[in-house]
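Sample entry (399 residues):
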Amino acid sequence: MMNKPIDVLASLGLPALPSQSPETIAALLWARDVLQKHLTRSYAVRDPKGIEELVPVDIGGVQQWLHIRGRNRQNPVLLYLHGGPGESMIGHMDVIQRPWEDYFTVVQWDQRQTGKSYYPEDDENNPLNIEMFVEDASQVTAYLQNLFGCEKIFLLGHSWGSVLGMYLIEQRPEWFYAYIGVGQIVNMLEGEKELYQQLLRHAKENNKSELVEKVEAIIPMLELPSPQREAAFVENCPLVRMELSILAGKTAMRHLPLPDVITLFNFDRLISPHISDTDLSNAILGGRSALLRPPYTSLTKDFMDIDLPNQLGFSFDVPIFFFSGRHDYQTPVTLSDQWFVEIDAPHKELIHFEESSHMIVNEEPGRFLNELVNRVLPLSQLQTNVNAVQAIGAVDGQI
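Predicted structure, serialized as tokens:
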């Protein structure tokens, strides 16, 4: 039996071509080439003090890709831990992060089996788990410390990346000026229950009786034992997020429904000069994210068992910032607000973004940068001043 042909454009969330003629295909490839060259010129780092590298690095025994950009290598490093698992940011962030690069050297890392770091899964012999990703993040940090000759960097964790980020600052607090949790995950199971209740409420308000029945049937599945619980999560998570996005703007973006968000992200990657034909092929033809692959006994179970207050506690030795979308129920803001109140840290700040849901960096990019520069960045300057004072004191003590 022949496999059903893959609609490449549909798989990327893009509209169909007006025709499938060789001339149309050639025009499409020409347009992609022109756009890639234009983006390369537009977003190139030209400052001689700057850095722009797209490099594979051996992390955890496999090749993983880093995209490093900044206008001055002396600026503090900001490592961005992307969400998902599986939501690569290389090929998407150039436009948004370009202003960041005046203040930080920004590092995007495609985590294992994701984006440019894709490789075929081997779940029987080498299943993925949270511990593996945290160790990868630790090795990436050590690589950056060595590359830039710095003791500390800034760490930003978005969504799934916020789980890795919190584990990392708990394990190696001396490595970080500060941690920024964006769409901070707290307790995955409780978060799913909160998300379902939000969808149920909005479905009732909008008289979506069929959707109400579906959600009411799904909610009890969250109490099933493993791996039935994980199977129910995988089967239903796209539906509930899509519906809550369309009905209320409470997943993905506040003012853009999820199908349009997917199209936006996919088009960014399609035209990105950092994404090769092989990367696109892997995205279309490669295996599903480890989170969504049966038998759900490794990473999916780890994911559903996330309960950071019980797993990591409430006391951290790193300054902590939560950047939270006021309308975010993909990772419910109610849970991260509650945990934040209980956290003990040398410095902590909670900043709500009133017009955002889950993708704050896209929804309020100007304010996001303003908060990064005015609230977070000074902590590196403060550390520099402390080091200078200590150095002066050491010299004075020898005189």
